[in-house]
Amino acid sequence: GTSQSSLTRAQFARLAANAARTLGLTEDVSDPVAAVQRLGLMQPNADGTFDTTSHVTREMAATVLLRMLRAYGGVIAGDVSVLSRYPDGASVADWAKDAVAVMTQYELMNGTAKGFEPQSEMTLEQCVTLLVRICQM
Length: 137
Prior knowledge:
The protein has five helices and no strands. The chain has 137 residues and is mostly helical. The longest helix has 16 residues, at 58-73. The radius of gyration is 14 Å and the shape is globular.
């Protein structure tokens, strides 16, 4: 079957850390959660703990990937006017607008008929595809 599995933050950290290693941003990914925090790709909770179990939304994934692209390639500005392409563009969180715009402009992430679906959960499959695209840029 083609069951699409939701991605936890721990799984996403591991994938992101490995992509960062591929891009030459880090050598040590033995502790992926530490690696992504060290690189500033993913943030801990306010109390310093790192949430490993909640699922990764599309806008959260876009934000982490934009941080990775900026760490690798420098300044990448998003043109938030592209969000108007999506029927639900206005529902993208303020903190994610720049990232969703960049993912759209570079055709790294696309919407569906419903829109970008920023609060929908990323699947493992989508995330792997995305990171491969980024590593090939």
